[in-house]
Amino acid sequence: MANEVTLYDIPSRGGVCWSLNPWKARLALNYKSIPYKTEWLEYPDIAPTLKSYSVPPNDPKDSTAQYSSPAVKLPDGTYVMESLKIARALEKLQPEPSLHLDNGYTERMQSAAQKVLQSLAPIGMPRIPVKLLNEASQPYFNETRSKRFGMSLPELAKSQMAGETAWKKAEPAMEEIKTILHEHEEGPYVMGKTVSYADFILVGLWRFVELLDEDGDMFGRGMNFDEAFPKHYEACKQWIKRDDH
């Protein structure tokens, strides 16, 4: 299709979207009903593939990786990388329904979600290669993340940073999200009855966590933090149905 967007995503063993950042782009596409197809890139293939398409690398101030997922190819043949830049490009491509990117909540939710993700990483990170990744991506992921944490992922899972320590660290950011969700009590979205990109940051986080959950220790515990959390997730579920093509 001439007007189709190509989304470059990282495959899971089940062949569906799993990671938070690609989810943000996919949710925006789903919400706007923009025609798109998925091109799956295993971790070692992201940089060489996008580089071969002459995609401009990430700004070192914004990312530690020169090339990353998500990226998109727009109908006019241009490429955009990084979820927020993609959202802005999609807003320009098709203004309605709006993502309300400049409502003040985008930055607040991004900050809070990132803190939750970083805090829970000692629990969730070691599960990614075991539960989600194809064999082609496992060595790359294990090597790069082990360097990041200064220990192997199995060691990280058993370290003092995991378990209750991780949840204790995540609590302030969870409170930030709770505060945001209660600012418009009529709900269920961040802006009340109006959907925005901030909603997709949050639902992308929870979908990611849901795939890593074991006996309710991540997703279940997160949903139990406040009654607004499951209400918000349920309201956004309609846009996570398309996750694999």
TrEMBL record:
| All copies of domain Glutathione S-transferase UstS-like C-terminal, residue ranges | 113-214
Matches recorded under CDD domains: GST_N_etherase_LigE
Q: Which domain of life is it from?
A: Eukaryota
Q: Where is the GST N-terminal domain?
A: 18-92
Against InterPro entries, the record matches this protein to: Glutathione-S-Trfase_C_sf (IPR036282), Glutathione_S-Trfase_N (IPR004045), GST_UstS-like_C (IPR054416), Thioredoxin-like_sf (IPR036249)
What's the protein here called? GST N-terminal domain-containing protein
